[in-house]
Amino acid sequence: MLYRQDRSARKVAILMGTYNAQKFLERQLDSIAAQSWQEWSVWISDDGSRDESLSIIAAFQRKWGANRLVLLAGPQKGFAENFLSLVCNPTITADYYAYADQDDIWETDKLTRALDILRNNDEGLPAMYCSRTRLIDEFDRELGLSPLFTKQPSFANALTQSLGGGNTMIFNQAARKLLFEAGRVTVISHDWWTYLVVSGCGGCVIYDDYPSVRYRQHSNNLVGTNNGWRNKMIRARRLWRGEFKRWIDCNVLALQHISKKLKRENAWRLHQFIMARSIWLLPRLIVLKQSGIYRQTLLGNLGLIFAAIFKKV
Question: Which CATH superfamily is domain 12-216 in?
Answer without folding.
Answer: Spore Coat Polysaccharide Biosynthesis Protein SpsA; Chain A (3.90.550.10)
